[in-house]
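Lab notebook: predicted structure, single chain.

Context: the supervisor wants predicted structures on file for every construct in the current expression panel, including those that have not yet been purified. This is the next one on the list. No modifications to the sequence; it matches the entry in the shared construct table.
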Amino acid sequence: MALAQSGLETPEDLKGKTVVVTEGSNAVGIAQSLSQKDGLELKHLRREKTTLNRSCCSPPVALQR
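Prediction complete. Output recorded below exactly as produced.
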């Protein structure tokens, strides 16, 4: 999901961008699938848990080229 004015219309528009998804959500698999299918070369970065993270929620995952 992106703002209409972001200019993102196709998966190719994500090249060179940081994509953040919630760990454990379907969005992780979708982003990884798009990366492979469209050659986005995203890599999976995990944010380390800190005391600032709420224990009720999964930390976001950044997929970055």
